[in-house]
Amino acid sequence: MLREMLASLPRAAFAFAYGSGALNQDPPIAFSPHPHISHTTTTTANPCSSSSSISTTTTLTTTTALSASVSAIKGSSSRGGSSSSAPCSGFVLSKRGGNKAKMVDFIVAVEDPASWHEENMTTCGNTAHYSSLMRALGPRACARLQDAQHFGARMYFNTLVPFRSERPQQQLFKYGVISTTALAHDIKHWSWLYAAGRLQKPVRILTRNTQLERLNKLNIENAARAALLTLPETFREEDMYVALASLSYTGDVRMAVRAEDCDKTRHIVRGNPEGFRALYTPAVRMLTKAGMLCRASSCSTEFHQPHDVDSRARLLGALPERFLRKLAPVRAPNTLSSCELAREIAQRGPLLSRKALLDALKSVVRASSLQQSVKGALTAGIVRSVKYAAAKFAAGRASFAVRAAAAAATASFALKPEFHRAQLRKLIAAATAAVLIGK
Q: Mind listing the pLDDT tens digit for each residue in 412-422?
């Protein structure tokens, strides 16, 4: 169906599908380790330092258990009263109860946006995909809005588009249009971390482009370096993938206003661990060969990294130069080279280096996500924008309700363990009610 949807649009130079409509993001109870890695508790020496560390098994947290229980109840209360056939699936934003299919998300990169929009409106007959305002203004206005400077991430989105098919179940999809030049710019310089941020996570490529895919390998390597700068000296494989998935969500206004699942990044990772391994194995090998990363042992999911100034400076110095300038202290002169600036940031210590990186990510992502959201109201129209936002807010509210209930459960169990079962039943009922109200 993905290719059928793409075929209904004009030809693109590069296209990929992302999100839960194209890839599995229904998380299991816990992170799935590599099939050749065991989870026995062992004490291992840190190959990157003289200290020792303990690798322990992954335990099921109260939050995950409660989310799984509420999700099962939510599934059983959906239309028709049928029970959920996917235990412990957690909350999936695009599954809006009943038998509604998930919305499929695409990004298409095109050489000439004005010509592409004109062909989409006329030859392909997709005028209804556009808002009434943009239909009246025409394809050239769409292209100008898409590439407007200081207004979004150089993208034009059409959302809640029904796919014309003979299937009884209506399928919706959303597609974003970006020029190949803007996409390459975002990948190389992290100017907006919008399309580039999505390519830092597993995607399903539908139209291949050798040049952009080769360029994205550098994007993947830079994402791995940035993730290491946010992680402690010793961390688990899952922690690394969650840090990678979180880069493009740091500062996202949708997370700030609770219009996204608060555990979205962990769900993305746990739903598709093999996709993250396949995407980042070359980068992990490159960093390991460079002495920047090492696994505790061949049968461990624990990693170590050196935290000395030289190592941090090497990681920072390899990041996109324009992005690196955003990490610079106020007092730093503009004449410093990338290497000199990276060392100055690294000398501030691991905590301040991490803060500088996260602040830079927030500034980039916050601006692009906010401007793109405003642009979306113009491109999608009032009705579609309200429907889309309402669905996001409802799902986000349900996710935060579960997290709050889980936190209360943890505190209650610590104080009164004898009431463990009774308290859990009450909290599950309360969280279920919040989910149903949120629907």
A: 555 555 555 66
